[in-house]
Amino acid sequence: MKVSIKDIAKKAGVAPSTVSRALKNHPRISADMQATIQALAAEMGYVPSESARHLAGKQSRTIGVAIPDFTDPFYMNILSGIEEVAIAHQHELFVGSFNQDLDRDRKLFDAFDQKRLAGFVVAGSLVDAAYLTRDSGDIPAVLINHYEYPFSVAIDQMRGVEMGVNHLISLGHRKIAYVSLGTTTSSDSLRYQGYINGLESSGFSTNPNWVVEGDGGIAGGLSAAKRLMALPDPPTAIMCYNDRTAIGVINGLHQIGIAVPDDVSVVGFDDLEIAAYFLPSLTTIQQPHVHLGRQAAEKLFALMHGATVQAELLEPKLIRRNSTGPKK
User: pTM score > 0.85 for this model?
Assistant: First the structure.
């Protein structure tokens, strides 16, 4: 009887998908594990099935995209870039969202596996964390904004927030707050570190009371602004996790009679389309969201065709608009 991947997995005490990846030298499997499994396969007389190879070649011409939230324009812009490339390669998209609910992560990635997708793109640190902690099979995947993953395209988020903080310092602000995502993710950790780096590089320290949680959306920003301004020693400038948070912050400030930027300056992160048209127009850190989607999709198709792919780190850009001004 022929030896199967399941037979090798049982003897090695690992999942069949781990064996499959190890036999293909997948970078997610350590060199030691690859050597162990490949030696075991040779010892057991494993021969790859030609029929399985044929079936693998008959996968649907569909790629998956996993995002955290359909309501966030940032991810919709990324999606448009991915779709543009997929159409050019005559592929369709299968898109799923966690809707900020991590209990849905396994179902989403299981659906990708069951549909035998040709590959998929994972966008958003809530989603990529769920992908990286599961036994995800052997489908090629590219992650957006996850530096450590070998097949990724990302913007330097830490550097981006540092640029925003430096901009506020250059305007004379010293009491600078940060409104976070409110969920422990790689993106929020990197942006928070950029906030700390920006202050420390100029010789300033932060007041722990000036770091408050948002929710990545407008409502969270609005609430955070009111909490910050109720402090005995409120900040004169606020660096925000993203543009949606910043828009909420500005609305919250206006509701309590605080003018932007005359009383408090505000900086966002993303450069959504609305940032240029909001009143006041939003100073922000630009992420090339459509380009991120395009690059991720191009890397995925390269992976699918057996090409060598390397992680790519893009430079952020500070966009100065009317939500920031000199400290008075």
Answer: no
